[in-house]
Amino acid sequence: MTFQAFQNRVCTSVTVNDDEMLEQTESFIARINITHPHSHISLGVSSVEITIVNDDEATVGLENTTYTVMENELKLYVCVVVHGPLIGCPIFFPFELLFVPTLATAFQGSDYRVRDPTLWFGACAMRQCLTVDIIDNNLIEDAETFTLTLKHPPRGSTDDIVLDPTVATVTIEDEDAAIVTFDRTEYSVQETSGSLAICARVVSPAVSCPVATPFSLTYSFPMELP
Fold it and tell me: Rounded to whole angstroms, how far apart are CA atoms 172 and 113?
């Protein structure tokens, strides 16, 4: 920059690149020096900090909002992806997200387990997955569900990262099986007894009481043996 005679203000232009990447606030220092010293001219404020405020935003959301897993698969991966800006590195700083499970008909600890609900994204990461352990309890059950909600952690959230979609519904399908059979292959009763108890039982090689949901049977007597 050059001051002409009688000129009291000069400016220079600094080009700011809009890189379409979600970044944290950046700053740099500009300094001035007198290249041709003058005995009557000295420096006052000789450095200034310039801050570049980010105006980009990115959307981070669940890859799928519904998941179905068989109980004997033992693992489920719930994945989160980064969307736009559509360049190679949309988010230029690390961040973390939090999964919050909600009880429905499946219970954490007995039907599934989320060991670490925190999902960590490094700078430029595009996809990360949460591991959910599915517990195979050898019980015959109806399909069970629970939800996982994606949230910003209490500390470290940023308004520049929009979460959408945020809720995944997980259905655990049961693969266990059992046999319902009469207690005996034949019964004998005295005609004068007045009644007879005919019993059925559930048989499973895995556990002694394998059916965790109620069900009904009907009895019929299609024919009378001679």
Answer: 12
